[in-house]
Design brief:
heterodimer; A: 289 residues; mainly alpha; MetI-like fold; 12 helices; 77% helix; B: two-stranded antiparallel ribbon; 2 strands; 1% strand
Chain lengths: 289, 282
């Protein structure tokens, strides 16, 4: 009898924890939505989503997120443009070309990169990369979009490399062997057969890479200069959605419009990453099949 | 050498060069942080409070704070993560509920860390009145680490051969007995590896603890889970951006300790994996 009782309790706990996972996602969404709606009751939704000025503490305040969205968009586009080709090339090398021992070393180094805390990379950006970019382009300050782009590209590499590598490794051997049988060189087989066959896994890698870059907070807050104006060039200081929340939450008075506006920014981020992850999952499922 | 062979040679050289381009900065950064931070390493640096506006002394409270946060995170995320992975692998049928759980795990893994920070602040700090505290910070980090723990536990459970379960069930064991005695023992290495890995991420995170637990300057140890603590990543942020004129070796030293802590946890997870893999036989 006692054993049966234990069994019931444990099974209930197991089912409950599955349910809790769904609850967490819903709760995150609901709490962000609740506080965002408090803003939209006093501040028009359209002015928030299409407003071009983010002036939270001027009188009257203005909560237009276009400058922040543009800031996030520009650093993300820049970082992805750099890290996708490099990441896929490195994944090809690690998965298909590198000899066994080198492969192990390279993979562990990529794991080391993945585990370096972002605040350390931000610090490196301040003391080393920022001044380097400043001197290279003769800027007034090295704390600009481009410094952020370099660091974000670097940070997204492990995501892109590991997922692309998995995708490349899951292409059936037969494909390659058939190509060799027809007289293709190893490179021709890789370039024309394996890479296209892995394309949907690589798309997933890119999606997740974008999600990683858009959501990164500390690096962009520390090195991009934090100027909430619509950026026209990556050589200017700019500010992202994430850095705005992190930088202003401490000062915003609890319950003020500014406070709620930051939750609305959080909601926007939540929705963007939700869509990216959902799409990536679709691509990944196609690879597995 | 014909054209195709030559092209192959060029392509492979370029790919190798690009890979070098990825690896070199990693080594460079590690070298840079170690060489500059080494000078700060001393027993005093690790065991003393910061003094004189954080320009002297050590990082003791931040180090302890980070360790406490890691323990707190583990206390919440380990049971919850393992139980939900067991549900997904051993109990779930292919229905809407299961698909929703899987979708939730995918989305939890993609939510930006700062959004976790916002959520933790509004739910744990404000709504549940925990205040900025170890409890609120640990809960926030725990929810964030769940996806990695669940994914690795799932993989570990799925790797246990089906026949183990069938034999146990055929001998009259209940479902839970089967899981407890015939599945979990063999899945432990995978579970530990994933857990330590996700905890090492949690140790290095800054954004989720900004408003939920991290203290700017607090030169004593916490007395209860409702106290704030300093934390290494936030401390590095503070002394490198908020406090002027902190000696460079202090910032590098803090960064070095943080990287060392995270890498140490990774090494532990690799050793655990290797150790258990030797014992595993099927």
């Amino acid at each position: 009898m006692n054993r049966k009782w234990t069994e019931t309790v444990i099974e209930a706990a197991i089912r409950l924890s599955g349910f809790l996972l769904i609850a967490f996602v819903f709760l995150i969404f609901l709490f962000l939505l609740k506080d965002s709606l408090s803003l939209f009751r006093v501040y028009p939704f359209f002015d928030f989503i299409a407003g071009t000025k983010w002036l939270p503490i001027s009188e009257p305040p203005s909560f237009g997120i276009v400058p922040l969205v543009m800031g996030s968009f520009m650093v993300t586009a820049g970082a992805i443009a750099i890290c996708v080709p490099i990441g896929v090339a490195a994944a090809l090398y690690i998965a298909e070309i590198a000899p066994g021992f080198l492969k192990t070393i390279l993979k562990s180094l990529i794991e080391v990169l993945a585990s370096i805390p972002s605040v350390v990379l931000g610090f490196i950006g301040i003391v080393w990369l920022g001044p380097f970019v400043k001197n290279l382009f003769h800027l007034r300050t090295g704390m600009c979009g481009l410094t952020g782009v370099f660091l974000l590209a670097f940070m997204a590499l492990p995501t892109i490399i590991t997922i692309s590598e998995d995708a490349l490794a899951s292409v059936p051997r037969m494909y390659k062997e058939a190509a060799y049988g027809l007289g293709a060189t190893k490179w021709q087989a890789l370039w024309r057969i394996v890479l296209p066959a892995a394309s949907s896994g690589i798309m997933a890698a890119i999606m997740l890479g974008i999600g990683r870059v858009i959501g990164e907070t500390m690096v962009v807050m520390m090195v991009t200069g934090n100027a909430p104006v619509i950026p026209t060039s990556l050589l200017q200081p700019l500010r992202t959605l994430t850095a705005t929340i992190a930088g202003e939450m401490g000062e915003a008075v609890s319950g003020s419009d500014h406070y709620y506006a930051l939750f609305a920014v959080g909601l926007v981020l939540f929705i963007i990453t939700f869509i990216l992850n959902f799409t990536a999952e679709r691509f990944l499922r196609r690879t597995r099949r | 050498m014909n054209g195709a062979k030559l092209r192959e040679k060029i392509a492979f050289t370029v790919l190798g060069f690009v890979t070098l381009l990825v690896i070199l900065p990693i080594l460079l950064i590690l070298y840079y942080v170690i060489s500059r931070g080494w000078g700060a390493m001393s027993w005093e640096f690790l065991t003393q409070n910061p003094r004189n506006g954080m320009k002297e002394g050590g990082i003791f409270p931040a180090l302890v704070g980070t360790i406490l946060l890691v323990i707190g995170t583990m206390a919440f995320s380990l049971p919850l993560g393992i139980l939900s992975a067991i549900y997904l692998v051993e109990y779930a049928r292919d229905n809407l509920f299961t698909r929703m759980i899987k979708l939730s795990v995918v989305n939890l893994s993609g939510i930006p860390s700062i959004v976790y920070g916002l959520f933790g602040f509004t739910v744990f700090v404000v709504f549940l009145h925990f205040g900025a505290s170890i409890l609120a910070g640990s809960l926030t980090l725990a929810i964030m680490s769940l996806p990695v723990i669940i994914t690795s536990t799932k993989e570990a459970l799925e790797a246990v051969p089906m026949s183990y379960r069938e034999i146990s069930l055929s001998l009259g064991a209940t479902r839970w007995q089967t899981i407890r005695y015939c599945v979990l023992p063999y899945a432990i290495p995978g579970i530990l590896t994933g857990t330590v890995l996700s905890l090492s991420r949690a140790a290095g995170e800054t954004a989720p603890i900004l408003f939920t637990v991290a203290a700017f300057y607090l030169p004593h140890l916490p007395r209860s889970v409702f106290d704030q603590v300093m934390a290494l990543p936030y401390h590095l942020y503070v002394i490198s951006t908020q406090v002027p004129n902190v000696p460079e070796k202090f910032s590098f030293g803090t960064g070095l300790v943080l990287i060392a802590l995270v890498c140490l946890m990774n090494v532990v997870s690799i050793v655990l994996r290797a150790h258990f893999r030797k014992k595993k036989q099927w």
